[in-house]
Write a structure and sequence with these properties.
With about 230 residues, this protein is of the alpha/beta class. It has 8 helices and 9 strands.
Length: about 230
């Protein structure tokens, strides 16, 4: 089985620790013994803090994007250190590097790739590039809701949605920074064109990620309808 795991930056917040990283590394190593795995990390609060400071200093949005990319790669390096010798020793900074590194059968850990591209989109591109059977998006909510559960107590969790339905929900909620944007439009387009099965789970507990990688019914499944 080939899989991509997207670890949202919130997984590394508020501060990374050996205990926290070890928990994820253990799940990642166990899964990779019989399966191919690529892990994409987000930038989290580190990225947000540095981007906010850069904006106050007058940095362009392109420069802010670069800061976010570097923060996500910093988290990738930290996770790779936790995974140890099972991880490929380099962090890809191009999609071509990813496919080459993945051919080694080692665990590839990576962050962002280029400005204007979220790490969700990178995860979708990685899944497309390695022809993944599954993309697990581990974030800070336990699935897709009809509205932002942080803001609307009436929000209802959905067990399964199509990319089109998810896009409708996210457009209604907004794609701005800090909004309930589990996937951005580019990530959804990639998922839709390649029919990549996606499971969105609460990644704050590594055991939840383990269950998702095993294909158990958990979180919300994003399933494309082939036409």
């Amino acid at each position: 089985m080939r899989a991509v795991l997207k670890l949202g930056g919130s997984i590394f917040d508020p501060e990374p620790s050996q205990t926290k990283i070890d928990g994820y590394a253990k799940v990642i190593r166990a899964f990779s013994k019989r399966n191919q795995l690529v892990v994409v990390t987000g930038g989290g609060s580190t990225a947000r803090k540095y981007i906010a400071a850069a904006r106050e200093l007058g940095a362009s949005e392109a420069a802010c994007d670069q800061i976010g990319i570097q923060a996500s790669r910093l988290n990738a390096r930290l996770l790779a250190a936790g995974v140890g010798g099972s991880a490929f020793p380099e962090i890809p900074d191009r999609l071509e590097d990813l496919t080459r590194f993945a051919a080694s059968s080692m665990i590839v850990v990576m962050g962002g790739l280029q400005p204007g591209q979220s790490t969700n989109a990178v995860a979708a591109l990685a899944a497309e590039a390695i022809r993944a059977d599954l993309l697990v998006n581990a974030t800070d909510v336990n699935g897709v809701y009809t509205a932002d559960p942080h803001k609307d107590s009436r929000a209802r969790k959905l067990d399964e949605v199509t990319p089109e339905e998810l896009e409708t929900i996210l457009v209604r909620e907004g794609f701005g920074a800090g909004e309930y944007a589990l996937m951005d439009p580019l990530a959804l387009r990639i998922i839709r064109r390649s029919h990549i099965p996606v499971t969105i789970v609460d990644g704050r507990d590594p055991s939840t990620i383990e269950k998702a990688l095993q294909g158990k019914r958990i979180g919300t499944r994003v399933v494309s309808v082939e036409r």
